[in-house]
Design goal:
The chain is of the alpha/beta class and about 250 residues long. It has twelve helices and eight strands. The chain is about 50% helix and about 15% strand.
C-alpha cells in the first residue's frame, strides 16, 4: 500500500483520507489483492499495546484506521494528526453504498443468532441492488480445524469480494489474521458492533453525539453494566499508556 503510517505505542496506523482509502480498496478488489482492515478504538489499542498476539494481528493488517476519538486525540498528544476519524459502522455504510454500482459481492460473518441474516435484509432494503452472497453466525467457542476449513470453503464458494467481520475486538482481528490466507475474497473488514448497530440490536449514538466525539460516553451509559465496566477499566489504562507514548515522543525516544 502507498499510504503513510504513524506509530502509536508500537501499533502502525494508516494515515490516509477516506476518498483515497476507497480508491485503494477498489484497486484491491480489481487486482484480487488480499487485504484486511482493522478499525481501532481505545479499548482495542490498549489491548494491543499490552498483548503481543493482539499487536501482531493489528500490525499484520494492511490498514489500521482511527475508529474512536481516543485514538485521534492520542495521536495529537504524540504530535500526529489524522485526516479524519473512520468509524467502522460509518465506513461500512459508505462502502456498501459505493459498491452497488460496481457489483461488489458482500459476505456478513459474525453477530449473534440471526443478526447477520437480519443485516442482509436491512441492507437489501437500504441499498437496492446490493449483492449479499452469504451470511454466517459462528459459535462463540473456538472453531475446530475441520470447522475452519468448512468456513473458508463456504465463504470461497460464495464468490465474495468483501467479507464484513462482526466478532468484536480483538477476536475479529485475530480471525482476519488467521483466515486472510485461506480466503479468496480480497477484502476483509473487521467492523465489530456495526452488525448490531445497523440491525438496531444495540443503540447507536445519534449522529450529533458521534460528531462531537462522545460516542464512547453514549455507549458506556446505554450499553449495560458490562459495557460500562469495560470503559471504566479501559480509560485509566488508556490515559497512562497514551501519556507514556506522548512523553517518549517529547523526549525524542521511540
Amino acid at each position: 500500500m502507498k499510504h503513510r503510517h504513524i506509530d502509536l505505542g508500537g501499533i502502525g496506523f494508516s494515515l490516509i483520507e477516506c476518498d483515497n482509502l476507497i480508491r485503494e480498496w477498489d484497486d484491491c478488489i480489481s487486482e484480487r489483492q488480499k487485504t484486511y482492515v482493522c478499525f481501532c478504538e481505545a479499548h482495542l489499542w490498549t489491548r494491543a499495546v499490552r498483548e503481543t498476539d493482539v499487536a501482531a494481528a493489528l500490525n499484520q493488517a494492511d490498514y489500521v484506521l482511527p475508529d474512536g476519538v481516543g485514538i485521534t486525540l492520542g495521536a495529537r498528544m504524540c504530535g500526529f494528526r489524522f485526516h479524519e476519524r473512520m468509524p467502522g459502522p460509518v465506513i461500512m455504510l459508505r462502502y456498501c453504498a459505493h459498491g452497488v454500482d460496481k457489483g461488489y459481492k458482500h459476505f456478513f460473518y459474525g453477530g449473534g443468532d440471526g443478526v447477520a441474516e437480519t443485516l442482509k435484509c436491512r441492507f437489501e432494503e437500504k441499498f437496492p441492488g446490493i449483492k449479499i452472497v452469504g451470511t454466517h453466525c459462528p459459535p462463540f467457542r473456538p472453531l475446530a480445524d475441520v470447522e475452519k476449513k468448512q468456513v473458508a470453503d463456504m465463504i470461497n464458494a460464495s464468490g465474495a469480494d468483501v467479507v464484513w467481520v462482526g466478532l468484536g475486538a480483538p477476536k475479529q482481528e485475530k480471525w482476519m489474521e488467521e483466515f486472510a490466507p485461506l480466503l479468496d475474497a480480497p477484502l476483509l473488514m473487521g467492523v465489530g458492533a456495526a452488525f448490531d448497530f445497523h440491525t438496531a440490536n444495540r443503540r447507536w449514538a445519534p449522529a450529533w453525539i458521534r460528531r462531537i466525539g462522545m460516542e464512547w460516553l453514549f455507549r458506556a451509559l446505554t450499553g449495560g453494566p458490562k459495557m460500562f465496566m469495560r470503559y471504566a477499566k479501559t480509560i485509566p489504562v488508556y490515559c497512562f499508556l497514551m501519556g507514556k507514548c506522548a512523553l517518549r515522543r517529547r523526549l525524542g525516544k521511540k
